[in-house]
Amino acid sequence: MGIRRRHWALAAPLALALLAATGCESTPGARAKPSAVPATSVARVCAKPAAGPAKAPPGAVTVDPAVAGDLAAKTRSSPRNTTFWLRPGRHRLESDRYAQVIPKEGDRYLGAPGAVLDGRKKNQYAFGGTARNVTIRYLTVRGFVAPHDEGVVNHDSADGWVIEHATIRNNSGAGLMAGARQRVRASCLRDNGQYGMNAYKAKGRISGLVVEGNEIVGNNTGDWERRREGCGCTGGIKFWAVDGADIRGNWVHDNRGTGLWADTNNNDFRIENNVLEANDGAALIYETSYNAVIRKNTIRRNNWVEGRRYADRGDTFPYPAVYLSESGGEPRIRARTDKIEIYRNVLENNWSGITLWENADRFCNSPANTSSGDCTLLVKNTGRCAQPAIATAPLYADCRWKTQRVDIHKNRFVLDKSVVDCTGKCDRMAVLANYGTYPDWSPYQGERVAEAITRKQHNRWYDNVYLGPWKFVAHDPSRTLDTWQWQGTPYQQDTGSTFRAGDGG
């Protein structure tokens, strides 16, 4: 953990339809105002949470809110596969900060209308332990104070949990952790201190993750990127080493920082039919990861705060709404696709569009690799990526995460600068790298990586529609191109695309 976002010059309800264009106003330096509800159907689960059963189901154990610790005690004394029904009211754990519910395999927790499990800013965790196949439905979980990088619900990342019609809000740390085959559906992950969900498992990989029809809003209230500059430790949801995920039909909005962030050796993602809007940072970051389909999403009014902040500092890097950083398609890694394909999305009035980036100094065993010592999925032993072998095949290719085999097509890119309230640096599409300099034994020094990502790694834009005054950056941040240069030799991008510079408004 602890991935750093890099300045280029340094080492560093469930189904959604595509939305019609809408406007929003902002002033320089201000956060985007909370989004109005889109005109189409979205996952409005925070404002209208589904109600749980008003009576205890047959055979369920009833939990009394008047008895502190009743839920944990009855869980301990009941066999596995027990259903617990929490009466209406505010349920409490015992006062010890480590007091928590430790489910048994197959346990089910159902909240009655108005049932709340309240940590009272005393307890760190709500539900923990390693039991599999636990279900939590119709319950509000709030007021827990998990430490940084830890979570409140499924604290120990157990496998097979189902979280449905739940509200997890106003907690420190992450509202929710994730295990393999976890299902998070129709839930509200709101106003948590660090993440809405932290899909991280200390041992083993997370596979078969489904996040569907949720509202993910207002997370990172602790503003951790400012408290620990460059930590890369925030977002509506952060994914780490997840192998197989379906992220669909969610409304991800007004988070302080990135909306969705997949970071370090994720693979086989489908991100589709989501509305990603008004997040302070990028709508989506896919970093040092592999093989994804990103389609039929509405992505609007993202990155106004962070993009403007960097621009005001004089930073020339094209910080975008969708950011692929050292990520690409890799046929040797099993997935449902061997590319990263970005298509049939609407990107409207974001701070810039899509950036494909590769840090020439970031590779396995490099001091500039901020991924906590991780290596690519193609090299198990990081120590192999050293002189002299790294300069020759296959390690020359396999020791670095590569932005390659990315197809960007049939998207609609809309930009009205009067809506974004900018005069420059908010209008770019980019494919680029930095000049390799570090460490002194690196075989990737000079323009090798910039040439590769721009011209040799099969990264293509085509058949897109552009409305507004778009510009294009290729090779490095100093090369800003107009439409003719972008489409012409040597870049030859956006074949079959249409451009209407005056139509962004």
Question: Can you describe what's shown?
Answer:
This is Right-handed parallel beta-helix repeat-containing protein. Residues 1-20 form the signal peptide. InterPro entries: Beta_helix, Carb-bd_sugar_hydrolysis-dom, PbH1, Pectin_lyas_fold, Pectin_lyase_fold/virulence. This protein is mostly beta strands and 505 residues long. It is 9% helix and 29% strand. The protein has seven helices and 37 strands. The longest helix is centred in the middle third of the chain and has 9 residues, at 304-312. The two termini are 41 Å apart.
Compose a concise summary of this entry.
This protein is mainly β.
Question: What key attributes describe this structure?
Answer:
505 residues; mainly beta; 13-stranded parallel beta sheet; disordered N terminus
- Strand content of the residues, in percent? 25-35%
Number of strand elements: 37
Intertermini distance: 41 Å
- Helix fraction bin: under 10%
Q: Please give the order of strands in the largest beta sheet.
A: 1-2-4-6-9-12-15-18-21-24-27-30-33
Oligomer: single chain
Mean pLDDT: 91
Structural class of the secondary structure composition?
A: mainly beta
Q: Which word captures the global form?
A: globular
Task: Break the fold down into its secondary structure elements and pairings.
Layout lengths: L60 E3 L6 H8 L5 E4 L2 E4 L15 E4 L3 E4 L16 E3 L2 E3 L8 E3 L8 E3 L2 E3 L4 E4 L5 E3 L2 E3 L4 E5 L6 E7 L2 E3 L6 H4 L7 E5 L2 E7 L2 E3 L6 E4 L3 E6 L2 E3 L6 E4 L2 E6 L2 E3 L3 H9 L9 E4 L14 E4 L2 E3 L5 E5 L36 H4 L7 E4 L2 E3 L2 H4 L7 E6 L14 H9 L3 E3 L2 E3 L3 E5 L4 E2 L1 H5 L10 E3 L5
Parallel strand pairs: 1-2, 2-4, 3-5, 4-6, 5-7, 6-9, 7-10, 8-11, 9-12, 10-13, 11-14, 12-15, 13-16, 14-17, 15-18, 16-19, 17-20, 18-21, 19-22, 20-23, 21-24, 22-25, 23-26, 24-27, 25-28, 26-29, 27-30, 28-31, 29-32, 30-33, 31-34, 32-35, 34-37
Antiparallel strand pairs: 35-36
